[in-house]
Amino acid sequence: MAGQKRRALPGFGLSLGYSLFYLSVLVLIPLAGCFIKASNLSWEQFWHAVSDPVAVAAYQLSFSTSIIAALLNSFTGLIVAWVLVRYDFPGKKLLDALIDLPLALPTAVAGITFANLYGSEGWFGQHLMFLDPDGFVGHWFSEDGWFGSTLFTLDTRARGGPLAIVVVLMFVGIPFVIRSVQPVLAEFEIAQEEAAVSLGASRWQTFRYVILPALLPAWLTGLALAYARGLGEYGSVIFVADGIPGKTLIPPVLIIAKLEEFDHARGAFKYEEAAAIASVVLTMSFITLVLINLLERWSKKFEPSEA
Amino acid sequence: MSILVKDVVKRFGNHLALNQVSLEVPSGALVALLGPSGSGKTTLLRIIAGLETADEGSVHLHEEDAGDLDVRDRNIGFVFQHYALFRHMNVADNIGFALKMRGRPKKEISDRVNELLRLIQLDDVGSRLPSQLSGGQRQRVALARALAARPRVLLLDEPFGALDAKVRKELRDWLRRLHSEIHVTSVFVTHDQEEALELADRIVVMSQGRIEQVGTPDEVYHHPANAFVMKFLGQVNLFHGRVEDGEVVLGANDKDAVVGYVRPHQFDITRHPIGKPSWPARVVYVNAAGVQVRIELRLTDDDRSLEVIVSQDAFRELALKTGEAVFVRPKEMKVFRDDVADYAI
Question: What is the Cα–Cα distance from B44 to A18, expressed in whole angstroms?
Answer without folding.
Answer: 59
